[in-house]
Amino acid sequence: MYIKYKLPDMNAGFTEVQGAAWFEDEFLVLEIETALLGEFGKEHKTVKIEPSALASIVFERKLIRDRIILRPKKRDLLDAVPGDHLAELILKTRRADRAAAEEFVVELRARQRAPSPNRPEE
To answer: Which one of 62, 78, 109, 118 is CB 3.0 to 4.6 Å from 85, fit for a cystine?
Structure first.
């Protein structure tokens, strides 16, 4: 299961940021592509996140683009993603992909609550 998303544009809208998210083993994987004016200087980056590193996961329905809001427990996660993010990472998904995005959030929340196989249970 994976979803496509957009992040808020950078550099006064000159740099577009988009990507895809999926699950790989026990990680949430964010593949991020930045491109100047949507075409030039494309850069790819992959960020792996343990769902347990997220403090909250929120899904918001909007008129044009829905939003998945990820709030990490530590600021380091936000520093790994291109752009300026205050306390949360907002993944904007198309309304046409709403059902897939909602299912993705349900799965992510389940993984967030599940004990990690690498850590002993407390």
So the answer is: 78
Question: Residue 36: which H helix or E strand, with range?
Answer: strand 27-36
Per the rule left: phi > 0, alpha: psi between -120 and 50, beta: everything else, 12 is left
pLDDT one-digit tens code per residue, 58-88:
999 999 899 999 999 988 888 888 777 778 9
Cα(25)–Cα(11) distance, rounded to whole angstroms?
34
Lay out the sheet containing 65-72: strands in order across.
40-49, 27-36, 15-24, 2-10, 89-94, 65-72, 54-60
Can you tell me which residue has the tokens 């792996």?
48
Threshold 0.85, pTM exceeds: no
Q: What domains can be seen in the chain, in order of their start residue?
A: 2-113 (2.30.29)
Q: Name residue 59's amino acid.
A: F
